[in-house]
Design a protein that fits this description.
The protein is mainly alpha-helical. It is built from 10 helices and no strands. The termini are far apart.
C-alpha cells in the first residue's frame, strides 16, 4: 500500500558504506521528536556529522540539568547540594560515554569491525572519562583539576547560610558550577569520539 517506497542498501558489517547515512537521515527527519532523539543516541558513529549531532543533543540538555542543580541548592541542608551535583555528573557523563561509543564494549566492537586494534583506539583517547567506569571519585578528581569549578563548589556551600541573600547566591553558584563542569566534560568526550572515529577509519589525527 506504499505509493512510493524508499529502499536503502545497507550493510550491518560496514554501516559507513552505501545508504546507511541516508537511511538514518530519513528516519531522523520523519520520526517524532522523542523517537528522533532516541535514534540519534543509539546510532553508531558513522560520520563526524553524527558525532556533532550527538554533541548538540547532549548540550541542549545542560541548561536543564544546571537548573535542577540550582533547585537542589535551595534546600538548606549542608552537603546535600554537593552530593546531588556529583551524583548528577556521574549519571550524565556515564550516559554520554555510552552515547559517544567510548565504553570498552563499544570500542571493542569498533575495533573488530574496522580491523584497528583496541589498543590503537585506546591510545588515541586523551581524557580520563572514556573507556573507564565513571565514579564519584573520578569526577571529584577531574573537578579538582578544574580549579575554577572547585572554587565555585566551595563557594556554593559557604554562601548557603548568609542571611537573605545566601540561598539565591548558592543557587546561582550551583547552576554555574554544573553548567561549566558539564560543558567541559562534553567537550572532552566529543573530542575523544572524533579522534577515535578518525583513527578507526585511518583518517588524519593529531597523533
Amino acid at each position: 500500500g506504499v505509493v512510493s517506497p524508499q529502499v536503502f542498501l545497507v550493510s550491518n558489517h560496514h554501516p559507513r558504506l552505501y545508504d546507511f547515512s541516508l537511511l538514518l537521515n530519513t528516519l531522523e527527519r520523519e520520526l517524532p521528536a522523542h523517537k528522533k532523539h532516541a535514534l540519534l543516541l543509539a546510532m553508531p558513529n558513522i560520520s563526524l556529522e553524527v558525532i556533532n549531532k550527538k554533541k548538540k543533543a547532549f548540550h541542549s540538555k545542560i541548561k536543564y540539568l544546571a537548573t535542577l542543580s540550582a533547585a537542589v541548592a535551595a534546600v538548606p541542608v549542608p552537603g546535600l547540594s554537593t552530593a546531588v551535583d556529583i551524583s548528577l555528573l556521574v549519571g550524565v557523563v556515564t550516559r554520554w560515554v555510552f552515547g559517544f561509543g567510548l565504553d570498552i564494549p563499544s570500542l571493542r566492537r569498533l575495533a573488530d569491525s574496522t580491523g584497528v586494534t583496541l589498543d590503537d583506539l585506546l591510545a588515541i583517547i586523551v581524557s580520563s572519562l572514556a573507556a573507564v567506569d565513571i565514579t564519584p571519585e573520578l569526577v571529584l578528581k577531574l573537578l579538582a583539576e578544574l580549579g575554577v569549578v572547585a572554587t565555585l563548589l566551595a563557594a556554593e556551600e559557604g554562601t548557603r547560610f548568609i542571611p537573605i541573600l545566601g540561598i539565591p547566591a548558592a543557587m546561582a553558584l550551583s547552576f554555574t558550577f554544573t553548567y561549566f563542569a558539564l560543558n567541559k566534560f562534553l567537550d572532552m568526550l566529543s573530542e575523544d569520539a572524533q579522534k577515535v572515529f578518525e583513527r578507526a577509519l585511518g583518517l588524519n589525527t593529531s597523533v
